[in-house]
Design goal:
7-stranded antiparallel sheet, 3-stranded antiparallel sheet, binds adenosine-5'-diphosphate, binds magnesium ion, 7 helices
């Protein structure tokens, strides 16, 4: 099929406390408004299911649920929880969705006001405490868990945008939510998309370089964004699950390239906890590449 007739569409809106945006090339006959509605519905659904900021989300319901009681959940959430537990195991616990209370204790996320500051105390191993029943779409907590999907849900949301675009038969698009990106095929002329890499400096927006992607996902986690000062030092919203304390000290950014944005998002958080590429604390994830920048 000739790509000459394709028109460039840009569609964007709000989700997850930030913005999503899509650039796609489509035939002029494409119903752009319908496409926009589908994209919006896809991310709105992810937010409604996975947001820790919404008391009526499915993840909040699971957090509130009684111990040892099965909770029915949407299939999308089972899939993301399953991926999160697998990455927790592969990263030797560097990625751990059980850090919700610790995130709040250090003044970040929806629990920031509700939890006493300066540490959240001991907690069980998430992957040993959360049982998933894939066939019956349900989960059970064997102990208290404070699950936080902020390190993976945005990436999953980007993948969902991608699924809508693929289902419409589009093969030249770039979808993103707040810097987590996925490309589904190059631009119509065959050239790759250019993604800027930010220099990891607090309070500044400087470009450190660019990467080019054709069909790939990219996510960045940085200890220089979303920081606050605690006792005279800057701490970030990324928690080292081994200690329950924030990644601190260096200003670092980790950009991961992976086949899906959900994987890229979670691995960027895990590698930021480890601090170097290739990681020292766990085997490098297969199919992923990372770029670690220090200020
Ligand atoms: P951003 O939201 O800026 O893209 P990340 O993808 O790195 O950043 O996600 C960071 C969020 O993930 C934190 O705000 C917190 O809610 C959660 N989180 C913090 N530490 C971890 C961790 N070690 N494993 C999993 N999730 C984490
Ligand atoms: Mg992440």
């Amino acid at each position: 099929m000739s790509t000459k007739s394709l028109v460039r569409l840009t569609l964007n809106g709000q989700t997850m406390g930030t913005r999503y945006s899509v650039i796609a090339y489509a035939e002029p006959s494409m119903d752009v408004q319908a496409l926009g509605r589908e994209l919006h519905a896809a991310v709105t659904d992810v937010d409604a299911v996975m947001s820790n900021w919404k008391a009526d989300s499915d993840i909040s319901r699971l957090n509130r649920a009684q111990i040892d009681q099965w909770v029915e959940l949407p299939e999308s959430l089972i899939h993301v929880l399953e991926t999160a537990l697998a990455i927790e195991a592969q990263s030797m616990g560097a990625f751990d969705i059980g850090v919700g209370a610790a995130v709040g204790a250090w003044g970040f996320g929806p629990l920031a006001e509700k939890i006493a500051s300066g540490g959240a105390g001991p907690r069980p191993v998430t992957r040993e405490t959360l049982e998933l029943d894939r066939t019956r779409h349900r989960a059970l907590k064997h102990g208290p868990l404070s699950l936080d999907l902020s390190g993976i849900a945005k990436g999953y949301g980007v993948d969902q945008l991608g699924d809508v675009l693929k289902a419409e038969g589009l093969s030249h698009w770039l979808a993103s939510i707040d810097g987590e990106v996925r490309a589904g095929g190059p631009k119509p002329d065959g050239t790759p998309w250019t993604i800027g890499l930010e220099r990891p400096v607090i309070g500044k927006r400087e470009l450190s370089g660019v990467i080019e992607i054709g069909e790939m996902a990219v996510a960045t986690s940085g200890s220089y964004r979303q920081c606050r000062e605690v006792g005279g030092r800057m701490v970030s919203h990324t928690i080292d699950p081994a200690t329950g304390t924030p990644v601190a000290g260096k200003q670092t950014s980790v950009t991961v390239l992976a086949p899906t944005c959900m994987e890229a998002d979670a691995w960027a958080t895990a590698i930021l906890v480890d601090g170097v590429w290739p990681p020292r604390g766990f085997p490098a994830p297969s199919g992923c590449e990372a770029i670690v920048l220090n200020a």
